[in-house]
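[09:14] KT: can someone run the structure on this one? pasting the chain below
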Amino acid sequence: MKLDLESAYDRYFLQEVNSVDIQNPCSDYINEIFLYYFVKYKELDRAASEIGRSSYSYDARLTSKSLLFSLNSQRALKIGPLQAALFYMQALCAFSLSLTFSIFLSIALPFIILVKNRKRIFGFKGNFIPRKRVFLVRSKSGFSRAKSFIEENAESLVVVDDHSGLRVSGQSIYSLLRSSNAPEIYARSLLYTLRDFVSLYKDAKSLLGIWFAFSVFCEYWKRIPQKALYEACLMKVLDLLPENAEVFSGEKEDRFALLQTRCCAQRKLHLICLPHGLEYGFRFPGGLCGESFYCFSENAKRTLEALYSSKKFIYSGCVLDKMLGIKPESLSGEVARICFFTEPRDPKVNLEILDYLAVEGIKCSLKLHPLEDPCFYTDRYRDIEIIEDLEDALKSSVCLARKSTILLEAVQRGRRSVAVLVAKKDKFYVDNLFPSLSSEKIVKVMDLRELADFLK
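[09:31] RB: done, structure tokens below
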């Protein structure tokens, strides 16, 4: 049985999410647990009247089952004894195996990275040179947010986490693994892995109970050692910086954002966040990245100041243009076409929109999210054009998206920006959870007939 969670999204849902109050979170994972699991738990809670034995799937992810069992303790759902027994055994096994694998990986990972990225790491001559401006880069989108700032100052140090094969200009943070600091980094990495295992367990238990805490490690057993190694290397990089150095990050609220914030605070370095994603309109228990946080809109600045009772949030039109990579030439060269910027969440909504446009005879190009497989669309729409380059796609005269920074980027470039809000969840997110998308310059269409009339 597939639950209809659309009914969960109303003003009371946001109140319930913001009502969470965790005193002194233990781990850097608290925001991820909150966003990916606690919010999902609240969705299930509001759909609890539909949940029965048919809602349980033996093939579901262990964390999904654990949310159902956490809800069961509050709602007395119809879960059979065999289902319960199997779940408890799975959760205990997952916890035990995850701890074993995490410790093993924390020992092996430095050597794996050295072999995997040997050309990049050993191709670096010399050591990290202390600079007053340092950019911590972990993704292409994070690099794109910082690119204009990096180009302004050729003396900037760009520190790249290339563990997952990221290839952008900069210095691999793992170059330190071939230095005299390597033994200390290895030891710290193992120590941080054990620390994170304990702290993640405490936070997961406080949010969603002991059985969720056991279950969640099957999702994090690889992530914990990787973060621990990154932290050990980052601390050595920060030790090399002068006291007045500025550190920039594209992370926003994830485990690396909290890690970078904590490490920079320990070294008394000023961390500035240039977020690569939209700000959420609810309060994260672990807070947001940095001592200064640049927002995508004035409305987002006001919303975050109220949520966090903080003045660290800043809005600047000039900084926003730099974050979005907008230059004078970006405002010209418009191409007369419609481009739909898809998103990986709820892909059936993307198909619903494209199917309707096809029926109406409205030609539309696609710009896919990096996490999407082109075959998902080309197998269904044989003649559709997929635009590979983001800048090229943003030259389209009409830019369609559901809920994305693309809507803001299109507005800043003078394009017609259209939010397609045919799903109740998308509408709720735009109206309540993404304050930067409240701009009147973004056209909001609520149904497919309205969209077709607008585009014709």
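[09:33] KT: thanks! The chain has three domains: 6-88, 99-323, 331-455.
[09:34] RB: yep, looked fine to me
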